[in-house]
Amino acid sequence: MSEQKRRSQTRMVPVPSESIVPERDLGKPPVLETHHLGIEFGGLKAVDDFNLTIGRTEIAGLIGPNGAGKTTVFNLLTKVYEPTQGTVMINGRDTKGMNITQASQLGVARTFQNIRLFSQMTVEENVRIGLHNQIKYDMFTGILRLPRYWKQERKQHTEALELLSIFDMQDLADVKAGSLPYGAQRRLEIVRALATNPCLLLLDEPAAGMNPHETSELMENIAKIRDRFQIAILLIEHDMSLVMGVCEGICVLNFGKVIAKGTADEIQNNPVVIEAYLGKRKEG
After folding, report:
1. 141 occurs within a structural domain
2. Domain count of the chain?
3. Is 51 within 8 Å of 36 (Cβ atoms)?
4. Along the chain (284 residues), what's the average pLDDT of each consecutive run of 10 residues?
5. Which of 5, 191, 275, 282 is the one with CA 20 to 30 A from 143?
């Protein structure tokens, strides 16, 4: 069954926070809840009263015109910014006062609009950076190269190749990341984020620079990642074919405010969303 057909068959149901989650996630604590989230820069409200709930295995979309505040929301969720109002809850825990590292330890991982790989390191080394929090030996063991060190090294090598196999990139393990084609670098960044063992994966324009074939493959792989790891995925994307093809719940942002939430079908036919993207038709 194609992901688009499966997505269209996903039943989204209301939850007490006036949001919707996939029916399969009912009865499970949501992976993400934001309540009245906002941030100001010099008196300008970049995000205002942002409320969102994401189910534990939901593929959700955050869309809106350029400058709507989408990446700012990601920065709030990952603690790059501390909100000036509201709350971010990850797995029921309030992230107030946490830093980027602590948010990562809670299970939040992300990719970026502008690729941030270590270009002079190999593909495998980039993935293993994501695996750093799974190291099971101390500095003394590492310096002396004791047996436990080599055992962990072999384990991380195997895990890195297994993660790379999601995108059929295992044969590129020894290639320098900076020499990869643009689309492959995008995929590597997703793999590195997955290496941190997240419960919530944030993808910031993952299809940027990809051709239609690569975008179609990405759509399939996003669904495969969700199914394989049983995690939630929230993506920012301007490619509407990707958003409508894979996202179950969609939140639309404009000028820092939520203007619509719903399923793909509801969003596509929402006149407020259409106006935000295309502008208001002139009368007469």
Report:
1. yes
2. 2
3. yes
4. 62 74 91 96 93 96 94 96 96 95 93 89 93 64 62 80 93 95 92 95 92 91 94 95 94 95 92 80 51
5. 191
